[in-house]
């Protein structure tokens, strides 16, 4: 490896790795309270990463709790205080992992895009994935106030970064191609319905035994493998890893803890699949963890918006069937609570659930698993029947 040049991913030892950047250098200036650390080659590093030099400099300040200053015309990027070069190199690696590398393929060939919902997305030119950054990090506030600029399409330099043509143009926000509700309207609806759903769930009377999930490496690996085959049995499945369904499935799994309901919906809009029943199935499998019952209130209003037909409902049930039957079999006893939550959110209708509960199907899982899931759902199906009986008795009494 040439002196002064390192792999952008320093965990990669391959000397033929195509993505390279200059080794970060520092210069300590001043004394006493005026001491500061200057990064003389920050512009060169940032160019290799296709990011503004202000971003990694500000990131250093966020992580070190130090003030930063920039003189872009003078090409000076400063962090107050005296800081060791090795420490800043470690922080640069962290910045690259969080704000440069694609979360899917770990390739640094990404652009930052800010959506209309103020979500920062890494748009990967290598694999086509769009993955959100951690919006809890303080740097995201700085990025939103100082939007990224994306270079025009250029040839790659020998060091693997984008060749500098000195001409930048702002990245446009993703357009809302659905012609549906505005962001503000959707946000208000989701918040309102989520609050109502939380109240309804608090009064749910179904009781099942508590469960635990196997979190061993082998079990996690098995669940990931099962998720990878989430297109099983669907008439319009697409096994291509770059299909929109594969993309949203991976994205949902990676961002389930940080993403909001509206962010998931907007991501589906970006892919043009927010109205597809297949999307409902994939999200039902990928968006939740072992704590699905507690997580449903967060995302249920989004499912309510997406589920607009009986076919959508069947896809939702199929996704849940695979979620508990294949990905998390320890959660099969919880299926009554899960169905109740979606029923309370008006994402599932009584007749559709009853028909599903009485017809074993091999469309999403094998026959034995399908039987187990439906057997476990009997308390909820019984509750639906009893609720109907109570309504009929009330009607008869009122007639008398």
UniProtKB/TrEMBL annotation:
<dbReference type="GO" id="GO:0005092">
    <property type="term" value="F:GDP-dissociation inhibitor activity"/>
</dbReference>
<dbReference type="GO" id="GO:0071074">
    <property type="term" value="F:eukaryotic initiation factor eIF2 binding"/>
</dbReference>
<feature type="compositionally biased region" description="Acidic residues">
    <location>
        <begin position="173"/>
        <end position="184"/>
    </location>
</feature>
<dbReference type="Pfam" id="PF02020">
    <property type="entry name" value="W2"/>
</dbReference>
<dbReference type="InterPro" id="IPR016189">
    <property type="entry name" value="Transl_init_fac_IF2/IF5_N"/>
</dbReference>
<keyword id="KW-0396">Initiation factor</keyword>
<dbReference type="GO" id="GO:0005525">
    <property type="term" value="F:GTP binding"/>
</dbReference>
<feature type="domain" description="W2">
    <location>
        <begin position="238"/>
        <end position="394"/>
    </location>
</feature>
<dbReference type="InterPro" id="IPR016024">
    <property type="entry name" value="ARM-type_fold"/>
</dbReference>
<protein>
    <recommendedName>
        <fullName>W2 domain-containing protein</fullName>
    </recommendedName>
</protein>
<feature type="region of interest" description="Disordered">
    <location>
        <begin position="143"/>
        <end position="186"/>
    </location>
</feature>
<dbReference type="GO" id="GO:0001732">
    <property type="term" value="P:formation of cytoplasmic translation initiation complex"/>
</dbReference>
<dbReference type="InterPro" id="IPR045196">
    <property type="entry name" value="IF2/IF5"/>
</dbReference>
<keyword id="KW-0648">Protein biosynthesis</keyword>
<dbReference type="InterPro" id="IPR003307">
    <property type="entry name" value="W2_domain"/>
</dbReference>
<dbReference type="Pfam" id="PF01873">
    <property type="entry name" value="eIF-5_eIF-2B"/>
</dbReference>
<keyword id="KW-0342">GTP-binding</keyword>
<dbReference type="InterPro" id="IPR002735">
    <property type="entry name" value="Transl_init_fac_IF2/IF5_dom"/>
</dbReference>
<dbReference type="InterPro" id="IPR016190">
    <property type="entry name" value="Transl_init_fac_IF2/IF5_Zn-bd"/>
</dbReference>
<dbReference type="GO" id="GO:0005829">
    <property type="term" value="C:cytosol"/>
</dbReference>
<keyword id="KW-0547">Nucleotide-binding</keyword>
<dbReference type="GO" id="GO:0003743">
    <property type="term" value="F:translation initiation factor activity"/>
</dbReference>
<comment type="similarity">
    <text>Belongs to the eIF-2-beta/eIF-5 family.</text>
</comment>
């Amino acid at each position: 490896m040439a002196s002064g040049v390192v792999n952008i991913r320093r965990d990669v030892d391959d000397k033929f790795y195509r993505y390279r950047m200059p080794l970060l250098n520092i210069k300590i200036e001043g004394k006493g309270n005026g001491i500061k650390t200057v990064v003389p080659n920050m512009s060169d590093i940032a160019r290799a990463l296709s990011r503004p030099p202000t971003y990694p400099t500000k990131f250093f300040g966020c992580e070190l709790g130090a003030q930063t200053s920039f003189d872009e015309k003078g090409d000076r990027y400063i962090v107050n205080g005296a800081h060791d070069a090795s420490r800043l190199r470690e922080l640069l690696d962290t910045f690259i992992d969080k704000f440069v590398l694609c979360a899917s393929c770990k390739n640094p060939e990404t652009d930052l895009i800010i959506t209309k919902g103020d979500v920062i997305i890494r748009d990967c030119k290598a694999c086509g994935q769009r993955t959100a950054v951690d919006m809890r990090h303080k740097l995201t506030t700085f990025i939103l106030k100082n939007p990224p600029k994306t270079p025009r399409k250029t040839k790659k330099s020998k060091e693997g970064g984008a060749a500098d043509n000195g001409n930048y143009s702002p990245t446009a926000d993703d357009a809302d191609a659905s012609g549906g509700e505005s962001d503000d309207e959707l946000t208000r609806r989701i918040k309102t319905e989520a609050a109502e759903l939380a109240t309804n769930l608090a009064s749910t009377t179904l009781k099942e035994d508590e469960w635990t999930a196997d979190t061993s490496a082998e079990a996690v690996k098995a669940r990931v493998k099962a998720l990878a085959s989430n297109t099983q049995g669907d008439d319009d499945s697409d096994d291509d890893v770059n299909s929109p369904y594969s993309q949203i499935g991976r994205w949902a799994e990676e961002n389930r803890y940080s993403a909001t309901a509206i962010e998931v919906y907007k991501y589906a809009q970006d892919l043009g699949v927010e109205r597809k029943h297949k999307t409902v199935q994939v999200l039902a499998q990928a968006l939740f963890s072992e704590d699905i019952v507690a997580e449903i209130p967060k995302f249920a209003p989004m499912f309510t918006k997406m589920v607009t037909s009986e076919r959508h409902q069947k896809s939702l049930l199929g996704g849940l069937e695979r979620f508990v039957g294949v990905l998390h079999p320890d959660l099969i006893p919880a299926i009554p609570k899960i169905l109740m939550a979606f029923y309370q959110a008006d994402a599932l209708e009584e007749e559709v659930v009853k028909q599903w509960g009485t017809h074993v199907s091999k469309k999403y899982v094998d026959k034995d698993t399908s039987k187990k899931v439906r057997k476990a759902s009997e308390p909820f199906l019984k509750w639906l029947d009893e609720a109907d009986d109570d309504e009929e008795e009330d009607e008869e009494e009122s007639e008398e």
